[in-house]
């Protein structure tokens, strides 16, 4: 009986695959035996390891999404294929459940070239069948703001959307594979998805479904592994407690919750960052400390304590170098030697609400004199001395933003804007 149970578990657990070809073979095998959850996970790995925007792999993932009970995700992926003008067999039985979704008639019209009902297009969305419209160039957010850069530097592409009532974003991340944004809405304690093409806003993950605590305080995408990391917190000061949540990016399905040990409490996570090797860092404002989850681990460990209070954001440069924002300024942490050095510069480096690391520079949102700024701070080789900051954009209203590849995306009011970052 024990051997039989072990064999069944082995069949249900997706096995590691070295490349896209191996992942696809394993995915097809899972589909053939009717293990559609494993089919979905392996199809997603195939897309990650294969060529970007490969129609065959995207179609494989669409089938897996449909068969594993994710019809909305399948509809999105089939829409991506329609955007690429790739041949799609919509008559497959695999898509029976997807055909019941409200967006199916519009998709079918785009694929076949027939006109779709006017009601299938949301107000303000591109007409079905029309080619993707690039994000329209916009003027700077606030040309007259203090230290505003020249228009040629501050101009950003923009995507307008219709937010839900009371929408107050605390974080945004860009999923380049599915061409959509994951946005955290603080009042509703849920994550939303905004489609980059259709501009539709749909619920993604709620506190009830994911087990979030009272306050959602940060999120980060690990695009190399297809994971979404979210931190949530409850309580204050001596009663504070937090959870680090791992979700599957493509579906929002919960994969793992990591909690600090009871001996480490109180803990209030206010930010999360993922290093290239998969190490996940969470910033604790109660400690203050930086916690770490190593690749393959399910345990939080204290990576380093911080002597300054008022920590607000962090960015991982690699698995042993982390930058932390405090009310007073920026710190460079060397986790190997457990040392912290203040970053010196001519500008005020306090007030950062988010941080990201790219090409020897920190990029993030800084609040200064009642204005929210998107700022790039280049550092010297030691990482402890800053060049004069470059202000990329400014806004009189709050900004939530994050870096994805060579672009910084930020949401303010009803618009997501995009800035090129060298």
How would you sum up this structure, described in words?
The chain is of the alpha+beta class and 422 residues long. The chain folds into two domains: 2-117, Alpha Horseshoe (Serine Threonine Protein Phosphatase 5, Tetratricopeptide repeat); 140-420, TolB, C-terminal domain (Neuraminidase, 6 Propeller), CATH 2.120.10.30. Helix content is 19%, strand content 36%. The strands form six sheets. It has a five-stranded antiparallel beta sheet, with no helix packed on it. A four-stranded antiparallel beta sheet has the order 3-4-5-6. A four-stranded antiparallel beta sheet has the order 7-8-9-10, with no helix packed on it. Helix 2 (20-32) packs antiparallel against helix 3 (36-49). It is globular, with a radius of gyration of 22 Å.
Helical content stands at 10-25%
Strand order of the largest sheet: 1-2-25-24-23
Per DSSP E runs of 2 or more residues, the count of β-strands stands at 25
Distance between the termini: 59 Å
**What is the name of the CATH class of the largest domain?**
Mainly Beta
CATH topology (fold) name of the largest domain: Neuraminidase
Radius of gyration from the CA trace? 22 Å
What is the count of distinct domains?
2
- Output the structural class: alpha+beta
Spans of at least 5 consecutive residues whose pLDDT stays below 50 are 1-14, 115-156
Write out the CATH superfamily name of the largest domain.
Answer: TolB, C-terminal domain
- Strand percentage, roughly? 35-45%
Apparent shape:
globular
The number of helical segments is: 8
Q: Round the mean pLDDT to the nearest integer and report it.
A: 86
Query: How is the biggest beta sheet arranged?
Result: 5 strands, antiparallel
Q: What would CATH call the architecture of the largest domain? A: 6 Propeller
């Amino acid at each position: 009986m024990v051997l039989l149970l072990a064999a069944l578990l082995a069949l249900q657990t997706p096995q590691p695959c070295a490349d896209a070809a191996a992942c696809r073979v394993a995915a097809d095998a899972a589909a053939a035996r009717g293990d559609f959850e494993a089919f979905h996970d392996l199809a997603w790995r195939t897309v990650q390891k294969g060529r970007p925007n490969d129609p065959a792999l995207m179609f494989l993932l669409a089938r897996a999404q449909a068969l594993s009970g994710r019809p909305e995700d399948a509809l999105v992926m089939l829409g991506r294929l329609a955007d690429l003008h790739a041949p799609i067999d919509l008559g497959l039985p695999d898509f029976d459940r997807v055909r019941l979704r409200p967006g199916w008639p519009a998709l079918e019209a785009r694929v076949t070239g027939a006109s779709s009902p006017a009601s299938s297009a949301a107000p303000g969305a591109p007409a079905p069948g029309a080619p993707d419209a690039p994000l329209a160039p916009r003027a700077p957010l606030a040309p007259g703001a203090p230290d505003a850069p020249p228009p040629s530097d501050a101009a950003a592409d923009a995507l307008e959307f219709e937010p839900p009532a009371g929408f107050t974003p605390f974080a945004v991340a860009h999923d380049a594979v599915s061409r959509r944004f994951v946005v955290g809405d603080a009042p509703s304690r849920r994550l939303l998805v905004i489609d980059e093409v259709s501009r539709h806003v749909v619920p993604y993950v709620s506190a009830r479904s994911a087990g979030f605590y009272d306050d959602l305080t940060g999120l980060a995408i690990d695009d190399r592994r297809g994971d979404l990391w979210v931190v949530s917190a409850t309580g204050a000061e001596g009663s504070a407690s937090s959870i680090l949540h791992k979700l599957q990016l493509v579906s929002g399905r919960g994969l793992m919750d990591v909690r600090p040990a009871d001996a480490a409490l109180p803990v209030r996570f206010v930010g999360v960052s993922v290093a290239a090797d998969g190490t996940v860092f969470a910033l604790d404002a109660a400690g203050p400390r930086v916690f770490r989850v190593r690749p393959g681990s399910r345990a939080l460990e204290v990576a380093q304590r911080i002597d300054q209070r008022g920590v607000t954001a962090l960015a991982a440069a690699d698995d042993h170098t982390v930058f932390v924002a405090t009310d007073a300024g920026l710190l460079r942490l060397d986790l190997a030697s457990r040392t912290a050095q203040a970053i010196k510069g001519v500008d005020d480096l306090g007030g950062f609400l988010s941080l990201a690391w790219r090409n020897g520079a920190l990029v993030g949102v800084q609040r200064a004199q009642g204005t929210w700024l998107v700022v790039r701070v280049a550092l010297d080789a030691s990482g402890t001395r800053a060049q004069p900051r470059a202000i990329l954009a400014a806004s009189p209203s709050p900004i939530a933003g994050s870096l994805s590849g060579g672009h910084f995306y930020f949401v303010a009011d009803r618009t997501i804007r995009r800035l090129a970052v060298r």
